[in-house]
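Anyone up for a design puzzle?
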């Protein structure tokens, strides 16, 4: 007897691991390497497509709380992430190749997990199944899911470029984290003065964009968290200066003053040979990326090892079709996990895979489902996915706003966040 898991991304690998951890055999289906998507480059599982950052690491933050809850439950992804971390100030960032390789090795070496390299074009009905095929679900299976769930929504997701460390002009850059947090080696900062920034902005908003070939191309819905930088720039001259190029908390040691605008570069690997343009997801044509981003003084000679790309993303209208244990309302033997449920973020996807896997086992054993307490970040995310009062459902990442209010009023933001986290970990139950 076994449980099916379709998709070996972050959610699928976490689901398979949690199922095997509870003594049940798993058939894990993955269409790579025979069939690759435009966004995937590696043969390994749990490939990080966009950033290599897993967001804030402090337990007193929403993202940090989510990761700590996953650690305490016994997450495979968190075990691997903690072993593959690279400097990133207050964030947990990983060497993406090392991370995916480690997850892949652990999955493939688990005797209870059978990896089947094949594309799945139909929804199995032979046993309990977890579908975690992600935002780039193949067309055949996507049609089956749409038919089963009564439709789906689409939007476009974008990835930022990566440049080599040696091509960054450090005479025009400086190393620092905002407010000197996390050490001086966390980020490379590329400052611009007012004239440089305004010239850059003018070229960015008028630069030529790559054509789109995916569905809904005439009216794409772009999720705010992955907004292409050129679209964001169209909202106003200073929009980037209050977004990905905000100079707050940084001081240029060459001038002793805060720059007019700053692009931050985050290390991509443990050897610090590659850097990601933070917040610069883009759909510009490749030559345009080199030309326009090269207007940033520190990047005038930048060597791009990966240009930014834009790709299709898909998620369900989860409040209408899913239960809070991530099972399908019309067929509780089918579970969904990952970005297609409407969770936004790497570890949010992993957490949904964790809970879908755990509850798939409980369904398999005819045991009642488990939904973590509402005071926990995972519990609140799980309930939000199934909250039918949410009419215009959009992707949701970990944030303190989805947690129930505290019993006491705490005005200080950091103290309030700490209180939320303390309460969540106090209420977290891991005996399952």
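Challenge accepted. My sequence:
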């Amino acid at each position: 007897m076994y449980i099916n898991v379709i998709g070996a991304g972050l959610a699928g690998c976490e689901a398979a691991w949690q199922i095997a951890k509870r003594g049940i055999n798993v058939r894990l289906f993955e269409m790579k390497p025979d069939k690759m998507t435009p966004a995937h480059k590696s043969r390994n599982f749990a490939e990080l497509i966009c950033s290599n950052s897993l967001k804030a690491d402090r337990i007193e933050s929403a993202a940090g709380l989510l990761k700590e809850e996953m650690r305490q439950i016994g997450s495979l992804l968190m075990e691997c992430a903690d072993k593959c971390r690279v400097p990133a100030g207050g964030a947990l960032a990983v060497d993406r190749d090392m991370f995916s390789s480690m997850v892949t090795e652990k999955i493939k070496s688990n005797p209870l997990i059978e990896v089947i390299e094949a594309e799945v074009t139909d929804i199995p009905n032979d046993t309990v199944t977890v579908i975690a095929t992600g935002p780039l679900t193949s067309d055949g299976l996507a049609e089956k899911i749409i038919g089963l769930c009564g439709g789906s929504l689409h939007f476009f997701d974008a990835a930022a470029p990566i440049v080599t460390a040696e091509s960054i002009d450090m005479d025009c850059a400086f190393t620092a984290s905002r407010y000197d947090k996390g050490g001086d080696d966390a980020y490379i900062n590329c400052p611009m003065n007012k004239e440089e920034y305004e010239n850059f902005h003018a070229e960015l908003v008028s630069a030529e964009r790559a054509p789109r070939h995916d569905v809904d191309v005439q009216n794409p819905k772009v999720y705010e968290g992955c907004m292409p930088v050129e679209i964001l720039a169209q909202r106003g001259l200073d929009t980037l200066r209050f977004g990905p190029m905000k100079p707050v908390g940084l001081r240029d040691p060459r001038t002793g003053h805060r720059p007019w605008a700053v692009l931050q570069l985050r290390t991509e690997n443990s050897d610090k040979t590659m850097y990601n343009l933070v917040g610069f997801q883009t759909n510009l044509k490749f030559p345009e990326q080199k030309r326009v981003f090269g207007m940033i003084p520190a990047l005038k000679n930048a060597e791009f090892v990966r240009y930014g790309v834009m790709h299709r993303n898909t998620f369900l209208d989860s409040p209408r079709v899913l239960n809070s244990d991530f099972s399908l309302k019309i067929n509780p033997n089918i579970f969904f996990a990952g970005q297609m449920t409407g969770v936004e973020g790497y570890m949010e996807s992993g957490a949904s895979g964790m809970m879908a896997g755990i509850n798939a086992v409980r369904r398999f054993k005819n045991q009642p489902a488990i939904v973590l307490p509402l005071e926990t970040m995972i519990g609140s995310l799980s309930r939000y996915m199934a909250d039918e009062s949410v009419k215009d459902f959009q992707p949701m990442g970990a944030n303190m706003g989805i947690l129930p209010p505290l019993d006491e009023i705490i005005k200080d933001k950091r103290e309030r966040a700490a209180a939320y986290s303390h309460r969540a970990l106090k209420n977290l139950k891991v005996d399952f």
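A detail worth pointing out: Confidence is low (pLDDT under 50) at residues 214-219.
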